[in-house]
Structure formats: structure tokens, C-alpha cells
Specification:
The protein has ten helices and 18 strands. It has 342 residues and is α/β, with parallel strands linked by helices. The chain is globular and about 60 Å long.
Length: 342
């Protein structure tokens, strides 16, 4: 079996394309999927560099996103059939104790981080993590929307409860989660404010429907939002940047506002003036991944066209190193997709 693997943590030089791995076999309640397309996430760079408390067993297969065709059914699986094209929920509870696989449950893990990943010809997952999608759906588009779509859905819909007419500030447009959040917010009917340090990315976001585009390298985002809203501020902030943006996020947030974060790419430690927190009656929330119920909603949105995540680059599996380089550069607009099989 062909796969992209690592034997140890470190830089891009640790990535290794292999052709000699054994084909996995599904156990009871599991299915084997022949992967057609996979996609990269910021998580893959963190796994490569090493995540505290997470260990790997070489040769470790990387990747969290996948779309493919069911290839073999494990014992007891009756709701899937050989050849079904499926999108795969990348996270679940290992012992099956939480049937909805809530990411807050003990024992929750993610493909490529806690379980062998998706950048391989074949992948074994619990059948409950598979959703059948039309054969006409482009596997690259399906893979691109999986992890980031699930993450953004939980942030926007389940946690922040964005409603029509809300003003939503989304940091770092161009990244997968930010682009998925933009699509979901637009489908709800919210007014979207997006930021980037690239005017080109902002222009492309405007073409996707972003209502207000701010270059955060040229303006103070908090002050600019206040100026444009007559000091009212926005209803919701989607922040995955952390240290570098936290102050501006709070400066932009209006009274009764909700801030939801799923990461800290610029740093993990932030400061909050508790007096502003209680006076403005803010709600500050964390969010990560999503449940089986939320994944079903994401898949429905992908199938009916409400959720499309732009694709920046498609490379074959044996050129996966190139995909990692593109992701690490930060220059991408959308997802880097790995074409595993036709």
C-alpha cells in the first residue's frame, strides 16, 4: 500500500512516501475505504512538528481529511455497501462509549493525530463515521470540506449560534476554517467581515461574498470595526490566531458579543480585561472539531452546495511533500488536496 508517513517528529524532511505498507483490514463495525482524495490541515503541520502528549508509532500515516469508496465491510455493517462514495468524519471516541462522538468526550481522537491517517490508498474507520455522498461529487471538493467544515460548523452554528443579520468578524481569510466559516455565515444570512494581510486574498474573499474586507496589516481592526459600526462593534468574532489578534478581537466585539476560538496559531497565551468582559457581557468560547450529528449537517451542506471550500492546489500522493510546503508557506487560499487515486 502507498502512503505518506513520518517516522519521527521534525521538519518537512521527515516526510516519507512509502509503497510497502500492509493493507489494513476492518474489524467489527468498521469499513475499509479506498481513498480517492485527502486534504491537508494546519493540524498536519502540528503533528509533523510534534504535539505534547501525543505519540506516534512509525511508520505513522499522516492526514485527517478523506473522501473515497467503501472497499470492504467489517462484520455487522449493514448500512453501507461496496462502492459507496463516502465522506469521513475524522474524529471519534475510541471505545464507542459516546455514540454521537462528541469531541468533549473522554477518549476522543482524530485521524492522523491519534489514529493512523488518511494519506494512504486504504483507510479503516468506524462505519458510523462514513456518510454516503453522490458519486458525482468531486472527491477533492468533498475532502477539502471535511475537517475545516466540521470545525467551522461547530464554531458558527453550535457554539456562537450565528443568526441572520449578525455581524461576524473572521480572522485570516484564506485558511480553510476561515473560508468554511465565511460560507456557512453567508448561507445563514449574516454580514461577514474578513481580514488578511494580503489584498489579493481579500479580493478573492469579496468574490466569494465577504461583505467587508480589512487588511489587518494596514489598519487597526478593532478601531476600524468600531468606526464603521458607530462604536457598536460586531456580534461574533471567529478567532483561530490567538495572541496576535486577541486584543483586536475584543476591541471589535460589541455588547453581548460572542467570541469563539478553535486555535492559537500565533501563540496560546492571551490577556483579557475582566472589567470589559463583565461590563459588555461577552461570551468567550472554545471549540474544536464536531459530533456525528454536526458532521451530518456539514455533509448535507456540501452536497446541496451551501458549503464549498476553495481548493488552492492539488498534487498526487507521491508529491505530498510539495503540498506540505505550500501549506507551511501560508500563501495558500483554500485547501491543499492530495489526489490519492482516480
Amino acid at each position: 500500500m502507498r502512503a505518506l508517513t513520518i517516522d519521527a517528529h521534525g521538519g518537512l524532511d521527515q516526510l516519507r512516501y512509502r509503497t510497502d505498507l500492509p493493507r489494513p483490514t476492518p474489524g467489527p463495525g468498521e469499513v475499509r475505504v479506498r481513498v480517492r482524495a485527502a486534504a491537508l490541515n494546519r493540524l498536519d503541520l502540528w503533528v509533523l512538528g510534534g504535539i505534547p502528549g501525543v505519540s506516534i508509532r512509525p511508520p505513522w500515516i499522516v492526514g485527517a481529511d478523506a473522501c473515497g469508496a467503501v472497499d470492504q465491510l467489517g462484520k455487522g455493517v449493514t448500512d453501507l455497501a461496496d462502492g459507496d462514495q463516502v465522506m469521513i468524519n475524522p474524529g471519534w471516541v475510541a471505545d464507542g462509549s459516546d455514540p454521537d462522538d462528541e469531541p468533549t468526550a473522554m477518549g476522543y481522537g482524530i485521524l492522523g493525530e491519534h489514529y493512523p491517517g488518511t494519506l494512504a490508498e486504504y483507510l479503516v474507520v468506524p462505519a458510523r463515521c462514513c456518510r454516503v455522498v453522490p458519486a458525482s461529487l468531486d472527491p477533492a471538493a468533498a475532502a477539502a470540506a471535511t475537517l475545516v467544515g466540521l470545525t467551522a460548523w461547530r464554531m458558527v452554528v453550535s457554539r456562537a449560534r450565528v443568526e441572520p443579520g449578525d455581524d461576524v468578524l473572521i480572522w485570516g481569510i484564506g485558511g480553510g476554517v476561515a473560508l468554511a466559516a465565511l460560507a456557512i455565515c453567508k448561507s445563514i444570512g449574516a454580514c461577514t467581515w474578513v481580514t488578511s494581510s494580503s489584498d489579493d486574498k481579500l479580493a478573492r474573499a469579496a468574490a466569494l461574498g465577504a461583505d467587508v474586507c480589512l487588511n489587518h496589516a494596514a489598519v487597526d481592526v478593532g478601531k476600524e470595526v468600531r468606526r464603521r459600526t458607530a462604536k457598536r462593534g460586531v456580534s461574533v468574532v471567529i478567532d483561530s490566531v490567538g495572541t496576535a489578534t486577541w486584543g483586536a478581537s475584543l476591541a471589535a466585539l460589541g455588547r453581548n458579543g460572542r467570541l469563539v476560538t478553535c486555535g492559537g496559531t500565533s501563540g496560546a497565551m492571551v490577556e483579557t480585561d475582566v472589567r470589559r468582559l463583565f461590563w459588555n457581557q461577552w461570551t468567550l468560547m472554545g471549540s474544536t472539531m464536531g459530533s456525528q450529528r454536526e458532521f451530518s449537517a456539514v455533509v448535507a451542506a456540501v452536497v446541496d452546495g451551501r458549503l464549498r471550500v476553495p481548493i488552492d492546489l492539488v498534487v498526487p500522493l507521491d508529491a505530498g511533500h510539495t503540498g506540505y510546503e505550500r501549506l507551511a508557506s501560508g500563501a495558500q487560499f483554500g485547501k491543499v488536496v492530495i489526489r490519492v487515486a482516480e
